[in-house]
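Consider this:
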Amino acid sequence: MFIKRIFPRFIPQFNTVRDSSRSTNVPLEDLDLEFKGLESVVKNPLTKTNGPDPIYLKLRDDMYNIFYHDKKFNFKLGGALPELRLAYETWGNLNKEKDNAILLFTGLSANSHAKQNVNNLNPGWWEDFIGEKMAIDTEKFYVICVNHLGSCFGSTGPSSISPVTKEPYGTNFPLLTVHDMVRAQFLLLDYLGIEKLHASVGSSLGGMCSLLSGLKYPSRVSKVIAISTCARAEPSSIAMRYLQRKAIMLDPQWNKGFYYDSPGPVNGLRLAREIATVTYRSGPEWKQRFGRKKINSIDPVTLNPSFEIENYLNYQGEAFITKYDPNSLLYLSKAMDLFDLSEGCENMVDAFQHLTCPVLIMGSQTDILFPVEQQRDLSKWIKQSGNSQVSYFEMDSLYGHDTFLLNLNDVGTALKGFLETKMAKSGEISKSKRK
């Protein structure tokens, strides 16, 4: 059997919360229970114990292409899968020389549907960036987008059925690293007969993958684009992802990852997404968009949400609980935390010695999840390693980390210019005006 049971070392031990009713010497029946807000809180709970069936369990295989790898796949940290599959979608045409392919790596929660196609007419998550005459021009390039190994949109992940046990892997799924994700996708490139990419492109987690592709497979990547990402996970982002995982794992319905015959940790996933949403956007945007606007200025104030920003976060949490597998969030976010390109090297400059192709680094000044200093460091370290073909573009955008999804003008223009231009020298640091 190739499956390694890993959850005992994956599940942290949390202290039980003490019963707060024991913290007072005043008998409960003597307390004034008429304080403002109690009645509304009881009648209108903020959470539910279950939700509708997850969308990711309703996906059809005809909505994407499937790559099957029928051999054992070993993971970097130990453990293996007896087989795996990757869901992927493509746009444009692969030329005769097979040298015009672009591998687009996704963020943590995205699927392979970056752009509308004949199999799925719904708009993709990068709909306005990919297409004829667009930032990634499908008249010139063959674009491939893959759902990450460990995710839940057609690729093998914790929610997939194990061929050995005939049950979902759950937390029997091996611990995952960014190295494993990248290696799996290069197996797909082998299957497609693509020996060398025109470029690897990615943002956030996808940016980590794009950087690693250029380092791990230097002879197979002609250009690297990394947006709103880092060379290693820093404490602030690790802390935020830890809180998201803790919210899920403290939900009693998580059941150590074996919840697929039940509603699952809906409340934990909802809270995790609300925490994540705070890190995806910026304070200036919140101020401009919501300010201190109230949900309702007529009803009396209660302990329930009073402000529009609270209502927005609640909406984001509700919308997410049907879209993503909680275990996939645990695994992929942990992989991001473990990411460190200097691992095994003397320092970060030494780590980039093998990244010799042209590189484009982009960052947003309002990003709090991957602060722009991390992209500045990336550019500096790659140049110091001896690579003179480094371009750096810094955006003054309201949208924080989500700038790569929303700022078509800056991100799209930089992408198109870099992909379609032969690099001759290092690009200087440039800054955009706020969009």
User: Anything to note?
Assistant: The chain has a mean pLDDT of 86. The first strand starts at residue 65 and ends at 69. The chain has 13 helices and 13 strands.
